[in-house]
Amino acid sequence: MAQAFPKKPSQPTNAAIVVYTEDTFATRSYLPAIATGLATSMQHFFENAREMIRGQRPDPITEPFAEGITTVSYPEQKRHYPERFRGVHRLTQRDDGSPRCVACLCCSTACPAQCIFIEPGEYAEGDKRRGYERFPVRFVIDELRCIFCGFCVEACPCDAIRMDTGAHAAPYDSREQFIYDKDTLLSFANRAGEQLSENPRHEPGDASHPGLSRDNVH
Amino acid sequence: MTVSQLIWAIVKIAIMVGFVFNMAAVLTWFDRRGGAAIQDRVGPNRAVFKIFGKEFRLAGMLHPAADGLKFFTKEFFMPPRADKLLFRLAPILSMVPVLALVAVIPFGDTLCTSDLWHASKGGVLGYIFPAVPRYGVCAIAHVQGSTVFPVDLLVAPLDVGVLYVFAMAGQGIVGAAIAGWASDNKFSLMGALRAASQMVSYEVAMGISLIGAMMIYGTVRLDEMVRWQGEHTWGIFAQPLAFIVFYTAATAENKRIPFDLPEAESELVSGYFTEYSGMSFGMFYFAEYMEIITVAMLTTTIFLGGYNLPFLHRDGLTIAFGDNVLLHQSMPHIWVTIFQVHAFFAKVLGLCFLHAVIRWSLPRFRYDQLMKLGWRVLLPLSLANVVVTGVVYMAIAKGGASLWNGLDVVAQSTQALVAFVLTVATLRLVVGFLRKRTHERLIVGSAGKMAAAAGGTPVTPMQA
Predict the structure, then answer these.
(1) Roughly how many angstroms between the first and final C-alpha of chain A, as a whole number?
(2) Residue B301's pLDDT is what?
(3) A107, A150 in Cβ contact below 8 A?
(4) Inter-helix orientation angle B186-217/B379-398, to 10°
(5) Res A119 pLDDT > 90
(6) A20, A144, B164, B242: which has the fewest C-beta neighbours closer than 10 Å?
(7) Distance between CA atoms of residues B117 and B11, nearest Å
């Protein structure tokens, strides 16, 4: 029968070996340890001071784990947002500068925060788009209510709303300034500075227009 | 007192007080900016000064000025049940003794103005700045009916010297204690109690540690202490243990990390000046940094040779070991004095730097550890130092001429050691400054890729 008491100490399989400092007079006096600590501090001080003076500080983003000061000095230096970052919305433009939006209200319907308001308008009589599309008379996004979920971009059938500006919502002084109207949204560009969209736009009357035409009614 | 003496007194006071005030402001800057460098941070750099559309940030040096402006414009708040008189008095009481303390500290050797005056009548350039003999006192000249006295480069040549220093340093307790008592705040009171007990405890060790030095120098006058160190060896070599005890106790007197229990912000908000705001807080804050400078001045004077540079004497550069004179270069008196004054202030700044590094390196003591260190370590050490110094001093005094000559060579070797260490340190600094650290590149994520494609993180000028 195995011995129950005293219990045989189990051998730790992966225990870390603790190295204790030897208890000598030098250790007790703390002076060598203090000198080591001061030397470490001074080394950091002199090397960082040299890099501050000579402008050799490591790049905070491409050399993030380098020795030295790797702080991003925010307003002067900005970390790029990831490629698929959902930033402030923009309304993409057609070639003639008008919004691609056809005021279908898909985005405002999909929006869980209900921050998009669209007032649709009909094109004038005789316009080739009349009957096929509408246009937004007002297109307002309340950036304070927006939760940046990106559902509006998903819902848009015309690639008219995008969140690829690469910019975050800017801070303002008053709430009115956070309410972006159509002209503001149209003025934004993507990171390459383009206000259009890569996707081709098929105007009514074009051969590539997938929709119905008046001459070809089913 | 003649007119020239009055002018000299004003100049000396202006030098000392100006140095203490300005360097205290610089130290507040260095404590933040240098501490940031020690901890791999950027530190304060936002204060901007604009001249003709050009921005100057001066590495954050404008922050002390901005702080001062802020202090002056902030409200002076007094707790309703605070002691009205004592509450106003306490910041003044903590600041004034520190300023009074610098009066007895010599920042240069006696300036023989009469010799300067005599020689300048010669008209030849070589005679404008003559050398003076190494030993002896300056002559008192009578020029056109007025007397030209030599100028001691210290504000008040007091015979009590070190005793005056202790009397003034002891007053620092009063300011802290009164501030805590008058604030009607328990944190303040706790801080004041701690400050009082800590400063009283460490004052004992601090005072006794200097007795050995006084025995060796044979004087309590600070200027004569410095003169002894110039002729023989620096106090740190004659009294190494006393130096350690004194420096530790002086740090504790300053209430600085690792001895900052009176204001321990993690325990007592900010200790005895919790209730102070605006410039009254600023005075406490400023007094702390002024204390650092005065303590550095005191340490320099008593242990680091004061204004002395290795081998530089009143008559010029003399490198000699025993009777062998290796080099003797006579130097003009005015230049020797200029070198020595700069050496003194450089040593003071070096000690302030050491103080800041200590502040950013060592953790705070526990209160019982603090008391144990003061009463059970430093006090016995300083007492033992007195006994050992006395015994050794008597033994040496009884020794013959050969022993004295041998000690002279040892003393001059310590000067050579100091010169060697200073040279090596300077060379090391220069070499280190020219070196360049290679930074390891590591591109992580799309942000890193975009920054790498742009050739580094772009930097735009500051907007505000």
Answers:
(1) 94
(2) 92
(3) no
(4) 10
(5) yes
(6) A20
(7) 19
Question: Which helix (H) or strand (E) element contains residue B278?
Answer: helix B278-303
B30: exposed, middle or buried (Cβ count in 10 Å: 0-12, 13-18, 19+)? buried
Q: Dihedral angle at the C-alpha atoms of B58, B64, B67, B72, nearest 10 degrees?
A: -120
Helix axes B186-217, B240-253, angle to 10 degrees: 160
Contacts of A61 in chain B (CB under 8 A): 447-448, 451, 457
Residue A21 has pLDDT above 80, yes or no: no
Low-confidence ranges of chain B (pLDDT < 50): 119-126, 464
A72, amino acid identity: V
Cβ contacts (< 8 Å) between A80 and chain B: which residues?
446-447, 450-451, 454
Q: Are the C-beta atoms of B59 and B33 separated by less than 8 Å? A: yes
Q: By CA distance, what is A28's nearest residue in B? A: B377
Q: What is the pLDDT of residues A183-200, one digit of tens each?
A: 999 999 888 888 888 888
| ipTM confidence score | 0.86
Mean pLDDT along residues A4-28: 72
Question: Is residue B307 within 8 Å of B346, Cβ to Cβ?
Answer: no
Cβ under 8 Å to A: B residues 22-51: 34, 37-42, 45
The chain-wide mean pLDDT, for chain A, equals 84
Using CA atoms, how far residue A65 sits from A58, B229, B405, B438, in Å, is 9, 49, 58, 12
SS3 A129: coil
Query: Looking at residue B143, what is its pLDDT?
Result: 63
Residue type, B129: F
Cα gap B49→B64, rounded to integer Å:
13
Q: How far is B448 from B450, CA to CA, in rounded Å?
A: 5
pLDDT of residue B426: 93
Strand, coil or helix: what is B54?
strand
CB contact A28 to B (< 8 Å): no
Query: Are the beta carbons of A76 and B361 separated by less than 8 Å?
Result: no
B441–A37 C-beta distance less than 8 A: no
The whole-angstrom separation of Cα B2 and Cα B260 is: 46
pLDDT of amino acid A210: 67
User: Structure tokens of A209?
Assistant: 């227009």
For residue A77, what is the nearest residue in chain B, using CA coordinates?
A: B459
Residues of A in contact with B443 (CB under 8 A): 62
DSSP assignment letter at A72: -
pLDDT score, position A211: 64
State how far the alpha carbon of A11 is from the alpha carbons of A8, A14, A16, B172, B396, in Å: 9, 9, 12, 59, 63
Tokens matching residue B233 = 């060896």
pLDDT (0 to 100) of residue B463: 57
- Of B370, B334, B366, nearest to B119 (Cα)? B334
Q: For residue B116, what are the CA distances in angstroms to A99, B28, B106, B113?
A: 88, 40, 21, 5
Q: How far apart are CA B228 and CA B215, in angstroms?
A: 12
Contact B277, B179 (CB under 8 A): no
Q: Which residues contact B422 (CB under 8 A, 6 or more apart)?
A: B310
Q: Decide: helix, strand or coil at residue B408.
A: helix
